[in-house]
């Protein structure tokens, strides 16, 4: 009887080890959101913070009766545990905006190992939980770069990946005038939805916010629905 129990335990352990080893290729892939799904809506997303300009961005959004989504890094322009950044995280949550993960150090996840991907994801999730008590439901992969390993790691955490379908190109050096011009061109095409990419780390953003079509579309943050 004892032998049988031991045998069972050994088999159970073997099965457990086998499950862990085989898991990355067996697990489900996280959903990837590339656009808004409800016609007439636009979502504005702001990456790479928390950062200095976050208060201005939030005020501009709130003044337009809108909310945005902030995809935070753990350590990119600054460390998320810095007291100023802790305040910024909680400020936008208090104002009703949505917060997602942009991973810890803004690495290209598609170049990392399974363990490294988990580390990049977990460290910022842990920070957000410690700072705000909340766990991010969405992850924006840095550079929009991901592979099946990344999707598997996100699926395990119950997360959805979110990319974008309109880039203001602020991170590529587009001037405010250029960004306004590309937004105007986009609106002329009368898109049913917009899922835009901005970065909260650029001071010119306020002007771009003024140019965004708050009056043209029902400006709600789809990711929060
Ligand atoms: Zn980024």
From TrEMBL:
One of the GO biological process terms: cell wall organization
Signal sequence coordinates: 1-22
NodB homology domain boundaries: 40-225
PANTHER family recorded: CHITIN DEACETYLASE, CHITIN DEACETYLASE-RELATED
GO molecular function: hydrolase activity, acting on carbon-nitrogen (but not peptide) bonds; metal ion binding
Database matches in PROSITE patterns: NODB (PS51677)
First-listed, main subcellular location of the protein, grouped into a coarse class: membrane
Cellular component annotations (GO), alphabetically ordered: plasma membrane; side of membrane
Coiled coil residues, start to end: none
Keyword flag Plastid: no
Entry keyword set: Carbohydrate metabolism, Cell membrane, Cell wall biogenesis/degradation, Glycoprotein, GPI-anchor, Hydrolase, Lipoprotein, Membrane, Metal-binding, Signal
Location of the protein in the cell: Cell membrane
Cofactors, names only: Co(2+)
Source organism of this protein record: Leucocoprinus birnbaumii
InterPro entries xref list: Glyco_hydro/deAcase_b/a-brl, NODB_dom
Higher taxonomy: Eukaryota, Fungi, Dikarya, Basidiomycota, Agaricomycotina
Pfam families: Polysacc_deac_1
Name of the molecule in the record: NodB homology domain-containing protein
Membrane topology: Lipid-anchor; GPI-anchor
Protein's UniProt keywords contain Glycoprotein: yes
Superkingdom of the source species: Eukaryota
């Amino acid at each position: 009887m004892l032998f049988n129990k031991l045998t069972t335990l050994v088999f159970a352990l073997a099965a457990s080890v086998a499950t862990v080893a085989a898991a990355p290729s067996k697990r489900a892939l996280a959903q990837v959101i590339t656009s808004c799904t409800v016609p007439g809506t636009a979502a504005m997303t702001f990456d790479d913070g928390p950062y200095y300009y976050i208060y201005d961005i939030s005020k501009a959004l709130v003044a337009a009766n809108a909310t945005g989504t902030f995809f935070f890094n753990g350590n990119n322009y600054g460390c998320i545990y810095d007291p100023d950044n802790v305040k910024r995280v909680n400020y936008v949550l208090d104002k009703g905006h949505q917060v997602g993960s942009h991973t810890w150090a803004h690495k290209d996840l598609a170049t990392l190992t399974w363990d490294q991907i988990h580390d990049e994801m977990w460290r910022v999730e842990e920070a957000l939980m410690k700072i705000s008590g909340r766990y991010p439901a969405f992850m924006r992969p840095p550079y929009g770069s991901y592979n099946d390993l990344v999707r598997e790691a996100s699926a395990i955490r119950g997360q959805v990946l979110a990319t974008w379908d309109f880039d203001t190109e602020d991170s590529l050096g587009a001037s405010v005038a250029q960004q306004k011009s590309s937004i105007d061109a986009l609106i002329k095409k009368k898109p049913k939805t917009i899922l835009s990419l901005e970065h909260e780390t650029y001071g010119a953003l306020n002007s771009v916010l003024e140019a965004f079509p708050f009056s043209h579309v029902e400006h709600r943050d789809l990711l929060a629905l």
